[in-house]
Amino acid sequence: MSPDSVAPGSVRSASEVNEQIRALWLRAGGSLSTQEREEYELLVVEWAKAIRDEVIAAA
């Protein structure tokens, strides 16, 4: 699933995004292409936001 296929404003948990990051690395065999690197960067930003939101919600 490409980050582009996720609707803007949709909310996924940090664990869901983390699973997608892990799957991307497995598919890539440990070496990301330029397109995969762009997808990875978007996923990391989404993961960081999800983590922040989860910490705020838990406080």
| Main sheet record | none
End-to-end separation in angstroms reads 31 Å
Shape descriptor reads elongated
Average predicted local confidence, pLDDT = 88
Number of strands: 0
Which secondary-structure class do the elements indicate? mainly alpha
Helical fraction equals 55-70%
Order of helices and strands: HH
Number of helices: 2
Low-confidence stretches: 1-7
Strand content: under 5%
Rounded to the nearest angstrom, the radius of gyration is: 12 Å
Question: What is the topology?
Answer:
Elements: H1 14-28, H2 34-58
Helix pairs in contact: 1-2
What does this structure look like?
With 59 residues, the protein is mainly alpha-helical. The protein has a domain at 31-59. 68% of the residues lie in helices and 0% in strands. It contains two helices and no strands. Helix 1 (14-28) packs antiparallel against helix 2 (34-58). It is elongated, with a radius of gyration of 12 Å. The termini are far apart. Mean pLDDT is 88; it is low at 1-7.
Give a brief description:
The chain contains two helices and no strands. With 59 residues, the chain is an all-alpha fold. The chain has a domain at 31-59.
